[in-house]
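User: I need a structural model of Nuclease SbcCD subunit D from Lachnoclostridium phytofermentans for a docking pre-check later this week. Nothing fancy, just the predicted structure tokens so I can convert them on my end. Input:
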Amino acid sequence: MKFMHLSDLHIGKRVNEFSMIEDQTYILQKILELADEEKPDAVLIAGDVYDKNLPTIEGVNLLDDFLSDLHKRKIPVFMISGNHDSAERLNFASRILRNNEVYIAGTYQGEIARYTLNDGHGPVNIYLLPFVKPAIASVYHEGIESYHDAVKAILAAAKVNKAERNILVAHQFVTAGDISPECCDSENISVGGLDNVDVSVFDDFEYVALGHLHGPQRIGRDTVRYAGSPLKYSFSEAKQKKSVTMVTIDTKGEIKQEYIPLIPLRDMRQLKGPIDELLNPKNYHNGNTKDYIHATLTDEEEIYDAIGRIRSIYPNVMRIEFDNSKTKPNETAKLVAEDVIRKDPLCLFEEFFKNQNNVSMSDEQNEIMKKLLFE
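Assistant: Understood. Predicted structure tokens for Nuclease SbcCD subunit D:
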């Protein structure tokens, strides 16, 4: 039995005030094309379906289209809520959608949802655990003090049949002992607190389809895996390789995984160097100039309308900053009170200028200040 594992769609997200709807529409269409090629028996969506708990109209319509297209292909969908979703809103019409093989677990109400598919090797049980906090779990279970306690108690109550093949879809921050997964700045993680769940609680499952972290990665063992987001949502993800995870389960214990790359409509890239080099055709003619760009300019001199010049080539530049001697902090620069008293205003300004810019005033600038102070 073959499964397509997705997570962290973040439909409706804005990155540096750029709407990602067009990019998300494009990548979801690519995922549908992959579904046509791979013909999975089901799609697992491990939370953070929307980016906000009150999704945009465009976002709701896009998810509606995506689920409808999967239904037309007769591919069952198993979906849970993440910490970005409104669990109750995602749960809307879930009982009706269940009749059309779209299975949604938006809220935890004391019992983990379980659905069963069958193939030539027998049943495969799919457990859906939406993002859960200790406060929610403590309503139904005793002794809950942490996220680990919450997930452990919920799975223990599920009484998983270890003799059968079992899959869990979950959305938590999972660690393996002292080893933490790779995180990026687009995720809301409290590392070192009580937010982590140890991978040991998943021992009864053949495969654990995780959501929450945007970088595709294993944690603890190969069959406990974050699919990662289908798109880059911050420049800290610029070097990540996005993919779709395909999981094939044969007899119990026989699992194969394949990671199929996703090529976005626009990539997210970081560029650094003098502005003339960044705008030199030989340095960009082979790249997609429509990509989302974070440009770091290393020029020492002032640049008039730097953002406008960059946008003339890269219209989707998201961020621009400078890295030169003027921007480096001058930690040794101090003005002692007695020096301030005995120095004239021009001398003080010269020191201030040098402390701010790491260079001395030019003769022309010095003359201008003399005239201003005289006036």
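Before docking, keep this in mind: Residues 268-322 form one domain.
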